[in-house]
Write a structure and sequence with these properties.
This protein has 492 residues and is an alpha+beta fold. It is 36% helix and 16% strand. It contains 14 helices and 19 strands. It has a 6-stranded mixed β-sheet with strand order 7-6-5-4-8-9, with helices on both faces. Strands 1-2-3 form a 3-stranded antiparallel β-sheet, with no helix packed on it. α9 crosses α10 and α12 packs antiparallel against α13.
Length: 492
């Protein structure tokens, strides 16, 4: 006889597989990414900014495939609840939150395990004051309408796994413009339905409030991003250890996938960018179908989605395990320019100030360096010029719940901001493209480079590639001798 009992306090299910035998299963009914008070603090900050209004946020729908459900970012940010089609009302007047959940689906529970349902247990687990059946949302909305309360709703299309604000907006606009589609985003449809049911209520966009909050990460958020970055670095480093001529790009990607999964990542934060030869010239090349040959210089840009937070790390390395003379020279030139930019980053500085300081340091390097190839000097000078004349108000894209995280207006870099630097050095006529990328968090004193442990110096890269696999023996390349390195080849 099979019996199920839920422990309300821990979200763990005890299942009797046979009479008298109990097994503990880690069926999590509420996220373990953060404790309930982290989400409650965020809702309190929303309440402080909406006055007597009410914020209404809907969760993602179920996935029409045999894939794990992943909540959309705005809803997860405020609730931590991973239930499809949930709705939350955050009331600025009463200073309380009401969560509306679908009713218990016994058939689904028999197949997939217990799920969070309305009631006192859900209130205790989530820290949300009221957890009611979803069908009661209409009554709550009608009450807000009668009071003429202002309603704040997300307007931007939801971002799910590997999504970004720009990709979500772009997809929604293309669908709307498509004469054979014309569909609205779920957010636009929801706003229309709310407007029809609450005509007395003014509607405002909640996204600017949430985006400003998300710009500065809490210590708990930084800890999760640090772990996502650690996993990214471990995956990239293991792929470098496994690298050898004759492998396909997708094989290196698979090594990283294994490491991500081993460390409990939900999936990728973005598609893997594994590019050999001229493929590296295309910044978002992701076909991963080419066979890597001796002399190839590989760009590897990949990171996991870990507990709803992303990272973004890039390294480049020779597939042979040894830099050719040309590869080493150009890569080192780029690395010193890259390090000059990194050394200019500091708290309370504008992007313009950082670019200007970096350009001055880059100029000093170019003046002292003996270039053996005039194309390399020209490439370096173009690189410096792009920073000297930079007019953009950012140094690199922000990282958080999305790999290209929300970027509300800001003036200076403040402690708690997390972003990457990824400037590229190119020689267009030769299809040469070099890029590194690190994840930085601004601190009171300066910044912390979360990905610094992943080698960037040529000697350290060569040493790493020579190491045996630290994962499964199947990844160890020691039984496959490395072909002789081709010498004199240009950077590929």
């Amino acid at each position: 006889m099979t019996m199920t009992r839920r422990l309300a306090g821990a979200g763990i299910v005890l299942i009797a597989l046979m009479a008298g035998t109990w097994t503990v299963c880690a069926t999590v009914l509420f996220t373990d990414a953060f404790p309930p008070e982290e989400f409650a603090s965020r809702r309190t900050r929303v309440m402080a900014q909406i006055g007597d209004g009410a914020a209404i946020v809907q969760g993602a729908a179920e996935i029409p495939a045999y894939l794990k459900f992943r909540q959309n970012n705005q809803f997860f940010y405020l609730t931590g609840v991973e239930v499809p089609r949930a709705i939350a009302i955050i009331d600025g007047k009463t200073k309380q939150t009401t969560l509306f959940l679908p009713p218990r689906d016994e058939r689904a529970e028999r197949a997939e395990g217990p799920m969070l349902v309305p009631g006192p247990e859900a209130e205790k687990l989530t820290g949300i004051e009221h957890v009611l059946p979803r069908e009661e949302f209409a009554t709550a909305l009608a009450a807000l309408n009668e009071q003429g309360r202002t309603l704040f709703l997300p307007h931007r299309p939801e971002a799910l796994g590997a999504g970004t604000p720009e990709s979500s907006l772009g997809h929604a606009q293309k669908s709307l413009d498509d004469p054979w589609d014309g569909s609205l985003s779920r957010e636009a449809t929801f706003i229309e339905r709310v407007a029809a049911k609450a005509p007395k209520s003014e509607r405002k966009d909640l996204d600017p409030i949430l985006d400003t909050m998300r710009l500065i990460k809490s210590p708990r958020e930084i800890a999760v991003i640090r772990e996502a970055t650690r996993i990214a670095g471990l995956g990239l480093m293991e792929a470098m250890r496994a690298a050898r001529p004759g492998m396909f790009e997708y094989e290196l990607e698979a090594v990283c996938d294994y490491v991500f999964k081993k460390h409990n990542a939900q999936g990728p934060a973005y598609f893997a960018l594994v590019a050999g030869r001229e493929h590296a010239y295309f910044p978002h090349y992701h076909q991963s179908q080419a066979k890597l040959s001796a002399g190839d210089f590989v760009l590897f840009d990949y990171a996991p989605d870990y507990k709803y937070y992303a990272s973004d790390v890039t390294r480049m390395f020779p597939i042979d395990g040894k830099f050719t003379a040309d590869q080493r020279e150009l890569y080192t030139i780029y690395l010193r320019l890259y390090q000059a930019l990194m050394s200019a980053i500091r708290p309370n500085a504008t992007a313009t100030q950082i670019h200007a300081d970096a350009a001055a340091k880059m100029d000093a390097f170019i003046a002292s360096h003996k270039f053996t190839n005039p194309k390399y000097r020209e490439a370096a000078e173009r690189f410096v010029k792009s920073h000297r004349e930079a007019r953009r108000n950012w140094v690199g894209h922000f990282v958080g719940m999305e790999v290209h995280d929300v970027q509300p207006p800001f003036e200076t870099y403040k402690p708690g901001m997390v972003f990457t630097i990824e400037p590229a050095l190119t020689i267009p006529e030769d299809h040469i493209y070099l890029r590194l990328e690190d994840v930085l968090v601004i601190t009171e004193q300066g910044y912390e480079n979360l990905s610094a442990f992943a080698p960037e110096e040529p000697d350290a890269i060569e040493k790493l590639i020579a190491e045996p696999s630290q994962e499964k023996p199947a990844l160890d390349k020691s039984s496959s001798p490395r072909p002789e390195t081709r010498t004199g080849a240009a950077v590929r």
